[in-house]
Amino acid sequence: MEIRTVDKIQKQALKKSATDFTRLGFALFFMIGVLTFSFLSNGGVSNNLFLAVAALIGAYMAMNIGANDVANNVSPAVGAKALTLTTAIIIAAIFEAAGALIAGGDVVKTIKNGIIDISAFGGNPDPFIWAMMAALLAAALWLNFATMMKAPVSTTHSIVGGVMGAGIAAAGVSIVNWGTMGGIVASWVISPVLGGVIAAAFLFAIKKSIVFKDDKIEAAKRYVPIFVAIMSWAFVTYLILKGVKHIWPNILELLNALPLISLEITQKPSFTTASMIGLVVAILVYMFVKKRVGSNTTALQNSRESVNTLFTIPLIFAAALLSFAHGANDVANAIGPLAAINDAVVNGGVSSAASIPLWVMAVGAFGIALGLALYGPGLIKTVGTEITDLDQIRAFSIAMAASITVIIASQLGLPVSSTHIAIGGVFGVGFLREWLYAKDEKNHTIEDDILSIEDEKLTKSAYEHELKALEEKDEKSQGDYTRIAELYKLIANEKKIIKSTKKSIKKAKKIQYVRRDAIKKIVAAWLITVPATAVLAGMLFFTIRGIML
Q1: Sign of the C-alpha dihedral computed for residues 109, 111, 113 and 119 taken in this order
Q2: Domain range holding 496?
Q3: Residue 519 shares a structural domain with residue 457
Q4: Does residue 10 lie in a domain region?
Q5: For the whole model, what pTM was predicted?
Q6: Are the CB atoms for 334 and 61 separated by under 8 Å?
Q7: Cα–Cα–Cα angle for 393, 398, 402, rounded to 5 degrees
C-alpha cells in the first residue's frame, strides 16, 4: 500500500514538472522570438542590441500582465461556473489581444501618468533608456513574484513604482511629480471601496427585487431585463470611453462615409456621447431580454438557482468586454516604456510621447494573451473561488461594479485601479453576505436560541429542586429511587441541550463568508507594490548604468 502511494506521488510530481517545463518552454520561445525579431528588424540602428534586450523585457512584462491582471476580468464568471476555466482563458486571450491591436492606440505617453519630469534628463537618451528598461524589468519581476504568491496586484501601480524608482535613481527626488503620486496612493483606498460598495449595492438590489420574493419567476420577468439593460448601458459607455477612445476619430470618419450622416470629428468621445449610445443599446437589450425571459419562464423553477441561470449569458459578455477594454488600456503598461526606448534609440532623443510600431503593439498583445494562457489559471482560481463563494448573481454584481466604478471615477477625476476595483467588488459581495446572514440570525435564530436556553435553564432548575427534595427525604420508596435516577438523566440531557444551543449561537455569530487571510495577503501586496518596484527599479538602474559605463 505504501509503495503504491509513493509511486502515485512520484507520477503526480513528474506530471506537474513536465507541465511546468512545457509552460516555461513556450514563454522562453516567445521571448527569444521577440529578441531575435527586434535585433534583425532594427539592424541598421545603433544600439539595436540594447533595443532587442528591451523588447525581450517588454515581452516578459506583457506575459506577467496576462498572468496577473487579466484574471480579474474573468475570475468572477469562472467562480460562478458561468464559464469553464479553459473557455474563460480562450475568451480573455482573444479579446485582450483584439483590444490591444484594434484599440491600443498609435501613440502612448512614454511616462505613465506623468509621474516624472522627463526634462530632468536634459535630452540625454542614455540615462532615459536605462531608466525605462529598469522600470520595465522591475515591474515585470514584481508581477512575476505576486503571481507566484497568488496575489492580484495592479500592473499600473507596478509600472508607476518602477518609473518613479528609476527616475529618482537617474535624476534625484525632484524628478517625481508628488501630487500625481498622492493621487495614486489615494486610489489604494478609493478603488476597492468604490468597487465593493457598488457591487454590494447591486447584489442587495437583486436580492430584494428577485431572490427574496415569494414568486421569483414573476419578479425575474420584471427585473432581470432592467438589470441586464443597466449592465448594457454601463459596458457600452465604459467601452466607448476606455476601450475605443484611441480609434474614435476613425469610427467617426467611417460613419461620415455613410449617406445622410455628418458628425464632427473629435479626438476622444465625450461622456454624453458615450452614455447616449449606451442608452440606445440598453433600450434594445431591454426589449430583447424581456421577450426572451418571458418566453423561457415556463422552463424556470421558483428557486434562486433557476434565477441564477438568467445571468449566465450577460456574465460571458461582461468577461469578454472587460478583457477587450483592459487590452486596449493596459497594453500601454507593457509597451509604453518599450515604445519610449524604441523612440529614444531610433531618434536619439527623449520624448514625452512616442509612436508605436506594429511589432511593439504585437509584443504587448500576444504577450498578454500568452501569459494568461500559461500562468493565469492559478490567479483566476484565487480571485474566483478562494476569497468568497460566487454564483451568477454575485459575479454579475462584481462585473457591474467594474464598469460603473470606472465611469464614475473618470468623470470625477478620481484615480482608480481596475484590479483593486474587481477585488473590492469580490470583498463587497462577501461582506454583504456576512451582514445579511448576521442580520437574519439576529432577527430569528439567535434570539430564538437565547429564549430556548432560558427555558431549558428553568426546566433544569426545576428538576434540580425536585432531585434535592427527594434526596433529602429520610425514608424513600422504590418509586422515589426510580424518580431520582430519571431526574439525573433529565438534568444531564438539559445540560447537553444548553451546551449545544450555546455552540450554535457562537457559530452563528462567528460565521465568515470572506477569507480573512486572503484579505491580509492581498492588501499587503497592494500596499508594497509601488515602494517595492521603486526600490527594485532604482537598484536595476544603477546595475545597468554600471554595466554600460
Answers
A1: negative
A2: 444-510
A3: no
A4: no
A5: 0.78
A6: yes
A7: 145
CA 214 to chain centre: 34
Task: Give the number of C-alpha atoms closer than 13 A to the C-alpha of residue 46, restricted to the C-beta side.
Answer: 5
Say how far apart CA 408 and CA 427 lie, in whole Å.
19
The total of structural domains in the chain comes to 2
51 inside domain: yes
pLDDT digits (tens, 9 = 90+) for 192-233: 899 999 999 999 999 999 988 888 888 888 999 999 999 999
For residue range 355-390, what is the model confidence (pLDDT) as tens digits? 777 888 888 888 988 998 888 888 888 888 878 888
Residue 529 belongs to some domain of the structure: yes
- What's the rounded Cα separation, in Å, for the pair 451 and 283? 52
Distance CA 424, CA 193 (A): 6
Q: Are 288 and 251 in contact (CB under 8 A)?
A: no
Q: What is the DSSP string of 401-451?
A: HHHHHHHHHHHHT----HHHHHHHHHHHHHHHHHHHHHHHHHHTHHHHHHH
- Give me 29's grid cell: 520561445
Sign of CA dihedral 65, 534, 410, 428: positive
Residue indicated by cell numbers 522600470: 135
State whether residue 283 is helix, strand or coil. Answer: helix
Do 427 and 456 share a structural domain?
no
Let me know: does 40 contact 345? Beta carbons within 8 Å: no
Are 516 and 506 within one domain? no
CA distance 246 to 266: 11
Residues 528 and 462 grouped into a single domain: no
Q: Note whether 502 and 391 are same-domain residues.
A: no
Would you give the end-to-end CA distance of the chain in angstroms?
A: 63
CA–chain centroid gap for 491, Å, is: 55
DSSP three-state, residue 219: helix
The residues that bridge with 354 in the sheet, in sequence order, are: 108
Per DSSP, 172 falls in state -
Instruction: Let me know whether 367 and 482 are in one domain.
Output: no
Convert the pLDDT of each residue in 89-128 to its tens digit.
Answer: 899 888 888 888 877 665 555 555 567 887 778 778 888 8
Q: Does residue 273 sit in the same domain as residue 407?
A: yes
Calculate the CA 314 to chain-centre distance.
18
Angle value at C-alpha 172, between 167 and 174, nearest 5 degrees:
95
Domain-located, residue 72: yes
Burial 372-405 (b: 16+ CB within 10 A, else e): bbbbbbebbbbbbebbbebbbbbbbbbbbbbbbb
